[in-house]
Automatic annotation (TrEMBL):
PANTHER family: NTPASE KAP FAMILY P-LOOP DOMAIN-CONTAINING PROTEIN 1, NTPASE, KAP FAMILY P-LOOP DOMAIN-CONTAINING 1. Residues 17-381 form the KAP NTPase domain. It comes from Calidithermus terrae. This is KAP family P-loop domain protein. SUPFAM superfamilies: P-loop containing nucleoside triphosphate hydrolases (SSF52540). Transmembrane segments: none annotated. Residues 428-476 are annotated as: Disordered. It comes from the Bacteria. Pfam families: KAP_NTPase (PF07693).
Length: 661
């Protein structure tokens, strides 16, 4: 298993990014400067920030790390950042007297002014209820000095209420514009002088995990940074997801955003002077990363150090060449071949199989990669504890389906459960894609109803057998798999699953995560923002969610689909009808979801299907004729519904589609 935190070693070969940031900070003519290290959730930003700190390790530099997420629930983010900087300078200059102490005292007074001003503002709004003996304002989240000030004010209310309110009212009296400007100017002047007196040639503040915070906290932190934009010899390096920061700006400044302005983009461009992008890992880089994770687990630290040296020195003109694989491992340990153990050889072989089927869904994300591998090893360990024998390559292939196409995973789970672990639909689909009659090799797929391979990716003829209600309630599973390009790659990838008894693999998933529940596919902050907009009852937000969904990566899209489908299953009444409408629009926005969308629609109660849904689904058939067969099949199901209005609507749409022919 591997930690989900940032790595202390550079497995991603991102040192060149950290060195680029270091060089920017060292350029005196750029200071003061704000640098944005931008990347998607789980892309390795925190690892890069850690490397940047190491690159800036100089005695005349003050490098401070600030994590806004840690302070989110305790105090004002603005005063927390300013206070952290001053506390660090104070600790560094604790033996100095004179000007340093005076400057620190003045600057800390400025921070207290922000803190107390905000807190007393809250007190003023709550003053009347407090005076009337109603529940008091909680003081737990306020700073010590602010707690003391408010507590004294509360006690004085009992003795001399008029005087207490006059005193507190004076403290929270707003400053006019000229006072604010003078205060900020004095702060910047004093801070610049403090750095000079303390012997600090450069202040560098590394702000990480900002995109995990609430929008209000993000904006407060960014507003605090603005105080330093004209302070000499200062640099702020912000690690965040650029889209999430823009989203936070839009949430806080909704009025401006509603006017059609690109307020999120404009705000960032004014604050972040130099953006540095962290690219997603290429498939070759992601494959090599998985290899390195396994090597880290199998090799002694000193031996793994040799591997890292080789990887850092690796240069290749062909971007598809792996920086580390079995051949390179044997080259590194040519003088000690026993160090390339059979366990490591097996792990690297498994890595190759994972790369074929899982990498598209992992989208070059180091965090998703580690979580997938951790889940894989955990499932394997749980199986052993239950006395089940699982093949790691089969488990990895099934889990990639579970992660990237959760709806198809559930379909396969249902099919294999009713066929003693061997689904004839899977055997026929593999035969079609692989070009062999694998279905005949499946001892568990004999008898009536077996699929007969025909044209590639087209619905095939069958020997008709009596259909159950479950058969009528779902589309032609095999056909919908074959028109999905990713699914065809999955079906063609080794190992083939035809003939494998899949029951133990689904049992271990069922045993730990509920009946046929899918592998937890956590929503990244970006995916969470899209999901929240999609399920909103406000049309503006749901439309915004649909637009953002068009740009989601494969992995984020799979996570949103999983969360959305579960939300629909749990909903009822008008909420369910609204979600179903958005679900169909999502399929229109991302056509790759059409078959998954129809599979879910086949399972929802007809009461939650509004009369407009058959019209929308029929429109999909006109837009995407390659999906027409599966769409007509769903319309036929609704045409037989006991909900007369729905049945009539579906029949009308079927008739219109037939006229088009």
């Amino acid at each position: 298993m591997w930690s989900d935190n940032e790595s202390p070693v550079d497995l991603l070969r991102f040192r060149y990014i950290a060195e680029a940031v270091r060089d920017l900070v060292h350029q005196k003519d750029l200071l003061p400067v704000t640098i944005g290290v931008f990347g998607d959730w789980g892309s390795g930003k925190s690892t890069v920030m850690r490397m940047v700190k190491a690159e800036l390790n100089r005695p005349d530099f003050l490098v401070l790390e600030f994590n806004g997420w840690l302070f989110e629930d305790y105090e004002d983010a603005k005063s927390a950042l300013l206070g952290s900087i001053l506390d660090e300078i104070g600790a560094r200059t604790k033996d100095q007297a004179g000007p340093v102490r005076d400057l620190l005292a003045r600057l800390k007074g400025f921070v207290r002014r922000i803190d107390v001003g905000k807190g007393l503002g809250l007190l003023a709004r709550a003053g009347l209820p407090l005076a009337l003996g109603l529940p008091q304002l909680s003081l737990l989240a306020l700073s010590g000095e602010l707690q003391k000030a408010i507590q004294e004010g509360l006690e004085s209310l009992k003795q001399d209420p008029q005087k207490a309110f006059e005193t507190l009212g004076g403290l929270i009296k707003p400053e006019d514009a000229s006072e604010v400007r003078n205060t900020i100017r004095c702060f910047r002047n004093d801070f610049g002088q403090l750095l000079a007196e303390a012997g600090i040639t450069q202040l560098v503040v590394l702000i990480d995990d900002l995109d995990r915070c609430l929008p209000s906290t993000i904006i407060e932190t960014l507003e605090a940074i603005k105080l330093f934009l004209f302070v000499p010899n200062s640099a702020f390096v912000i690690g965040a997801d650029e889209d999430l920061i823009r989203y936070a700006v839009r949430q806080v400044y909704r009025d401006l955003d509603a006017d059609g302005r690109e307020v999120g983009r404009d705000y960032l461009e004014k604050l972040i002077q130099i953006p540095v992008a962290i690219p997603p890992l290429s498939r070759a880089e992601n494959h090599a990363y998985i290899n390195l994770l396994f090597a880290q687990k199998r090799l002694a630290p000193e031996d793994f150090g040799k591997v890292l040296e080789s990887v850092q020195a690796f240069v290749a003109n062909d971007l598809q060449t792996l920086s580390f694989d079995l051949a390179r491992a044997r080259e590194i340990f040519a003088d000690a071949p026993h160090k390339v153990t059979q366990e490591l050889v097996g792990d690297l072989a498994l890595s190759g199989q994972i790369a074929k089927v899982a990498l598209p869904g992992l989208e070059g994300s180091p965090r998703r990669t580690k979580r997938f591998l951790n889940s894989l090893l955990l499932r394997s360990a749980l199986a052993k504890a239950r006395g089940l024998e699982l093949k790691m390559d089969v488990l990895a292939k099934l889990m990639s389906l579970e992660y990237i196409r959760p709806v198809y995973f559930k379909q396969l789970a249902t099919l294999q459960a009713s066929q003693e672990g061997r689904a004839k639909e899977l055997a026929a689909a593999e035969a079609e894609v692989r070009g062999t009659d694998a279905a005949q090799q499946d001892s568990g797929a004999t008898g009536e109803g077996k699929a007969i391979p025909s044209g590639r990716g087209q619905p095939r003829s069958r020997v008709e057998t009596p259909q159950t209600d479950a058969d009528l309630a779902r589309p032609d599973t095999e056909s919908e798999w074959l028109v999905d390009s990713w699914m065809r790659v999955w079906l063609a990838a080794d190992p083939p699953l035809t003939g494998e008894d899949l029951r133990p693999y689904f049992f271990i998933a069922h045993d730990r995560i509920g009946a046929l529940e899918t592998l937890p596919n956590p929503l990244s902050p970006k995916a969470l923002a899209v999901f929240q907009n999609l399920i909103s009852e406000k049309d503006l937000l749901s439309r915004r969610g649909l637009e953002a969904a068009k740009k989601l990566s494969e992995g984020d899209l799979a996570a949103v689909v999983q969360a959305f489908s579960e939300k629909i299953r749990q909903a009822s009444g008008k909420e369910a009808q609204h979600l179903v409408r958005v679900w169909v629009k999502l399929a229109e926005a991302r056509p790759v979801l059409i078959h998954q969308a129809l599979a879910l629609l086949a399972s929802v109660p007809h009461e939650t299907v509004a009369l407009s849904i058959p019209v929308s689904v029929s429109y999909l058939a006109k837009q995407f004729p390659e999906h027409r067969s599966i769409i007509e099949q769903q319309l036929r199901i609704w045409a037989e519904s006991k909900k007369n209005n729905l049945a009539n609507s579906a029949r009308e749409q079927l008739a219109r589609l037939q006229k088009v022919n």
